[in-house]
Amino acid sequence: MSGPFGKNALTFSGVVKELRTTFETFTDRRAGKNSSYTMTDAALSAFSVFFMQSPSFLDFQRTMQERQGKNNAQTLFNVFQIPTDNHIRSLLDPVEPALVYPLFDFVFEDFQSAGVVDSFRAADNRLLLALDGTQYFSSQKLQGSCCSCKTHSKGTVNYSHTGVTPVLVKSGNDKVISLAPEFVCPQDGHEKQDCEINASLRWLERQGSQFAALGTTILGDDLYCHESFCRALLDKQLEFILVCKPDSHKTLYEWVDDLERNGVVKTGVRKRWTGKRNELDTYRYVGTVPLRDTDDALLVNWCEITTRTGEGKILYRNAFATSLAIDDVNVAAVVASGRARWKIENENNNTLKTKGYHFEHNFSHGQQFLSSLLATLILLACLLQTLLDLMDDKFCLLRQKLPSRRCLFDDMKALTTYLCFDSWEHLLDFMLEGWSYTPESRSRKVNL
């Protein structure tokens, strides 16, 4: 690949090769002789559906194999033999999602070597890593050993799956870098149900030190802004900027009010032209206020932004607790970093659910890990497409020519339904050939 970060970068086929290598480590628990389909082919087949954003991709490739003796699941995704949908489900159900996590590190390391990670650094040269939980399955009928359950007042029971989906974000950047998830699920030896915070603590234990070494600030909503989680971040040498609401932090806001009356809280106003109108950003901040009402409470720094129109109408207001020092010079940058947390919802969770990935679609629930494994493969597909966005010139050129990502993958879905391509490069070249077609190019033929 080439592109703004593409020198010596991974190729698509290189990533697929690494996928096959990882999937070959999956344990095959079948005891009988019915082993015509491999675990590796099952995992690659499932991944291909999510990457192509086409639930019918495998059906089309099975038909193509019958008619042409070859298919795109084989040439693009290195699937030797396409399993049936039922075989895919039964083979992958016992596979824990953690076995896929090394693939996220594999791509992340390439992002590091290509300079992509450093391009995500904020004004203070720190990385911003947002944590948030998102639900990807809900049912009153289907359930399994990894489900969380909630009994409603009328007696109905809802079974669901939730995952914490960490991403690197940057203010002003419309892309995010997906990291390996952590799932909310029942834990052995625990009577209470698992929750988003516990899942985030497990993620912190697994990857906190890695990101602390890179100089990382953790972003999160008000749910994360409590003392035990903040101390866990500091223990890992991670800084934080967390949404801090008055209703859930009454002691902190009592201190802020008292310090305001004594003239300690500092205020600054900055005027901005949006291209359509003037807006006023009012910043308030103060240092070393307690996060809770105890003598040994953790002391944090607090800041707030209120954005108004020139007529005084409030457009936005939010406040943050942070471990970072705040002053007149950096308060706007700290707030901008805190607000970048919303990218995990807009550019990540919303994209997964509404932009072709079908994250909330019940592809299959299974009895063990199937639902969470398929969710992990969807996140991996999204990460690989981000890699192409940043590192593949031909892919980027097609993205520029077509009005949307969905349009690009709709075209790919149509092409791969009827034509078999020798490789990913062949597919991109064929599409670009269509854009550059001239009468003089009629004699040039694509070998199909």
Helix content: 40-55%
Low-confidence stretches: 438-448
Mean pLDDT level: 89
User: What is the structural class?
Assistant: alpha+beta
Q: Tally of extended strands?
A: 13
Task: Please give the count of helices.
Answer: 16
Overall spatial form: globular
Strand content: 15-25%
Rg result = 25 Å
First-residue to last-residue Cα separation: 23 Å
Largest sheet: 9 strands, mixed
Describe this structure in words.
- It is a single chain.
- The chain is α+β, with helices and mostly antiparallel strands.
- Among the domains are: 1-119 and 361-448, no CATH class; 243-328, no CATH class.
- 42% of the residues lie in helices and 18% in strands.
- The chain has helices at 12-23, 39-52, 57-68, 72-77, 85-92, 101-114, 116-119, 196-212, 227-235, 250-261, 331-339, 343-354, 370-391, 393-401, 405-418, 424-435, and strands spanning 127-130, 133-139, 148-151, 157-164, 167-169, 177-178, 182-184, 216-220, 239-243, 266-273, 278-290, 299-309, 314-322.
- The strands form two sheets. It has a nine-stranded mixed sheet with strand order 6-5-1-8-9-13-12-11-10, sandwiched between helices. Strands 2, 3, 4 and 7 form a four-stranded antiparallel sheet that branches.
- Strand 10 (266-273) and strand 11 (278-290) form a beta hairpin.
- Residues 438-448 have low confidence and may be disordered.
